[in-house]
Amino acid sequence: MKINFTHDLALVNGLKIPPKLLGQLNEFKIEKSNHFNLKQSIKKDGYIFVRNLFDKNKIKLAREEVFMRLKEVDEIEDPYQDGIYSGRSSRDKIYTNRGEFWKSVSNGKYLREITNGKVLKKIISDIFGEPSIGFDFLFLRPVANGKFTQMHCDTSFFTRTTKKVLTCWISFTNVTIDKGPLFVIENSHKFNDIKEKFDGFDVGIDKNRKASIEEHPSEFAKKRNSKILTSNFYPGDILIFGMNLIHGSFEHHSKDKNIRLTCDVRYQPIAEPKDSRYFGKNPGGTTGSGYGELNSARPLNENWHIR
Ligand SMILES: O=C(O)CCC(=O)C(=O)O
Ligand SMILES: [Fe+2]
Question: 293 CB contacts (<8 Å, ≥6 apart)?
Answer without folding.
Answer: 99, 285, 286, 287
